[in-house]
């Protein structure tokens, strides 16, 4: 938990947290649709299709973390996986996209599967 001195040095701005959350959500929704198209074109079915989605969504979140969040956190001297300064919670950052983009993934997955297999 940050101390009062840390809040005075680098305050958390709610508008910035909301902006970061929207940017991550947009990325996750876009990639969910792209992954759905890829799964449909590849002809994945059942568990392999859902495993494809979960693996690539987690990979996308890890890449987003290493490219955007980690360099600024480490420069500021914070803990390695501390996302609380940039997002509402760690859960929202790491697992929020798994379920937020699932509906879009399933829709594009079935659409492209039907188009390719028809």
Automatic annotation (TrEMBL):
Swiss-Prot/TrEMBL keywords: Endoplasmic reticulum, Membrane, Transmembrane, Transmembrane helix
Coiled coil: none
GO BP terms, alphabetized: autophagosome assembly; protein folding in endoplasmic reticulum
Entry's transmembrane regions: 50-70, 91-116
Membrane topology: Multi-pass membrane protein
Localisation per UniProt entry: Endoplasmic reticulum membrane
One GO cellular component term: EMC complex
Predominant location: endoplasmic reticulum
Family: Belongs to the EMC6 family.
Stated name of the protein: ER membrane protein complex subunit 6
Organism for this UniProt entry: Xylaria multiplex
């Amino acid at each position: 938990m940050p101390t009062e001195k840390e809040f005075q040095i680098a305050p958390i701005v709610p508008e910035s947290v909301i902006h970061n959350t929207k940017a991550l959500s947009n990325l996750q929704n876009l990639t969910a649709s792209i992954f759905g198209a890829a799964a449909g074109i590849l002809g994945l079915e059942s568990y392999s299709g859902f495993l494809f989605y979960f693996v690539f969504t987690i990979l996308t979140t890890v890449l987003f973390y290493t490219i955007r969040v980690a360099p600024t956190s480490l420069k500021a001297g914070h803990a390695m996986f501390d996302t609380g300064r940039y997002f509402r919670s760690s859960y929202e950052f790491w697992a929020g996209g798994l379920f937020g983009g699932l509906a879009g993934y399933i829709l594009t997955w079935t659409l492209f599967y039907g188009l390719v297999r028809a």
